[in-house]
Automatic annotation (TrEMBL):
<dbReference type="Pfam" id="PF21376">
    <property type="entry name" value="TOR1A_C"/>
</dbReference>
<dbReference type="Pfam" id="PF06309">
    <property type="entry name" value="Torsin"/>
</dbReference>
<keyword id="KW-0067">ATP-binding</keyword>
<feature type="signal peptide">
    <location>
        <begin position="1"/>
        <end position="22"/>
    </location>
</feature>
<keyword id="KW-0325">Glycoprotein</keyword>
<keyword id="KW-0547">Nucleotide-binding</keyword>
<dbReference type="GO" id="GO:0005524">
    <property type="term" value="F:ATP binding"/>
</dbReference>
<comment type="similarity">
    <text>Belongs to the ClpA/ClpB family. Torsin subfamily.</text>
</comment>
<dbReference type="GO" id="GO:0016887">
    <property type="term" value="F:ATP hydrolysis activity"/>
</dbReference>
<dbReference type="InterPro" id="IPR017378">
    <property type="entry name" value="Torsin_1/2"/>
</dbReference>
<dbReference type="InterPro" id="IPR027417">
    <property type="entry name" value="P-loop_NTPase"/>
</dbReference>
<dbReference type="GO" id="GO:0005788">
    <property type="term" value="C:endoplasmic reticulum lumen"/>
</dbReference>
<dbReference type="InterPro" id="IPR010448">
    <property type="entry name" value="Torsin"/>
</dbReference>
<dbReference type="InterPro" id="IPR049337">
    <property type="entry name" value="TOR1A_C"/>
</dbReference>
<feature type="domain" description="Torsin-1A C-terminal">
    <location>
        <begin position="275"/>
        <end position="330"/>
    </location>
</feature>
<keyword id="KW-0256">Endoplasmic reticulum</keyword>
<feature type="binding site">
    <location>
        <begin position="106"/>
        <end position="113"/>
    </location>
    <ligand>
        <name>ATP</name>
    </ligand>
</feature>
Length: 348
């Protein structure tokens, strides 16, 4: 804050000097120009110190987003391509027709939250900690069926206030399957094709829904490909979107009978396929590296063997995706270190 005061003092002094040198007949023009320059300089100085809805706080790093998904997301070819293209296309437009709405579907551990956080990391300087990224959790923020009307009012107020503050706001709704139907219909006006709603333009904002709904059908279609000897990367977005739309609209949860679906306001339904053992082993390798452990083949195999797989006949898919890897890896690495300590003590 002290630094901002210094910047303002310098700007005021420069403004006074400029006005003092101005001729009387140009004084009015000089005042206007000086004031405009002062406002611009003030905004620039302020945004160097505190968070603002512009660069450097808005990063829009699409190259980094693509690289991160390519290098850190496994087994999700549809999610990787759809997310990068959809987000870049939306942010590249100076005047998009509507807010971007993505709906991620699949079982736990497939990477839905992970991808949402990667998006935030590459659009905002502080990622998920940015003042312009807003996370709602179904079971936490909308727990009671009797309060749907209240939730809708609060949600509208929150979104209007934050998009007013920053038109490039990101809203992430996790555990949509645990929300009561009707809550999300509150945002319908904000993701429609209106230029403004109550004087606010919502078309540059982004909404992401995360849900387990459709996970069973996504898994079944993936398993059908496996049993037919077809590679999973031949699964198309078109066939999966049809499956997801039907499941999300008819199964219990926040999108059941939703006007967002019937009104075709969700731009992309993104499937997250069940992860195979080979994908889980890559997640294990990354986690061991993150924790500064050598990712040896034996360690990776031991951790992978501690997880559960299905179906019983083939054991090809991880029941929890990559979700429980950290806990299992920590347990096994701790046991390994305890064993080494015992050996060391016995040698003394």
């Amino acid at each position: 804050m002290e630094l901002l005061r210094v910047h303002l003092l310098v700007l005021l002094l420069l403004t006074e000097v400029a006005l003092a040198r101005a001729e009387p007949q140009t004084m009015g023009e000089s005042v206007g120009a000086a004031f405009a320059a002062f406002v611009d300089a003030y905004q620039y100085a302020k945004c160097k110190i505190s968070m603002c809805c512009e660069k450097p706080w808005l990063t829009s790093n699409f190259t980094g987003l693509r690289t991160a998904l390519n290098e850190r997301l496994y087994g999700q070819h549809l999610a990787m391509h759809t997310v990068v293209q959809a987000v870049k296309a939306h942010f590249d437009k100076e005047s998009p027709q509507k807010a971007l709405v993505l709906s991620f579907h699949g079982w736990t551990g497939g990477g839905k939250n992970y991808v949402a956080s990667i998006i935030a990391q590459h659009l905002y300087a502080r990622g998920m900690d940015s003042a312009f990224v807003h996370l709602f959790i179904g079971g936490l923020h909308f727990p009671h069926s009797d309060d749907v009307a209240s939730y809708k009012r609060q949600l509208r107020s929150w979104i209007i206030g934050n998009v007013t503050a920053c038109e490039r706001s990101l809203f992430i709704f996790d555990e949509v399957d645990l929300m009561d139907e009707g809550v999300l219909d509150a945002i319908k006006p904000f993701i429609n094709h209106y230029p403004q709603v109550n004087g606010v333009d919502f078309r540059k904002s982004t909404f992401i829904f995360l849900s387990n709904r459709g996970g069973d059908d996504i898994t079944q279609r993936t398993l059908d490909y496996f049993r037919a000897g077809k590679p999973r990367d031949k699964i198309t977005l078109r066939e999966m979107e049809e499956i997801i739309t039907t499941a999300a609209y008819n199964e219990e949860g926040g999108l059941r009978y939703s006007q967002l679906i019937s009104g075709h306001l969700i731009d992309h339904f993104v499937p997250f396929l069940p992860l195979e053992r080979q994908h889980v082993m890559l997640c294990i390798r990354d986690y061991l590296k993150l924790m500064n452990h050598e990712p040896t083949e034996d360690r990776i195999k031991t951790i992978a063997d501690s997880l559960q797989y299905f179906p019983k006949s083939t054991q090809i898919y991880s029941a929890a995706g990559c979700k429980r890897i950290a806990q299992k890896a920590d347990l096994i690495m701790q046991a390994e270190m305890d064993q080494q300590d015992d050996i060391f003590r016995n040698e003394l």
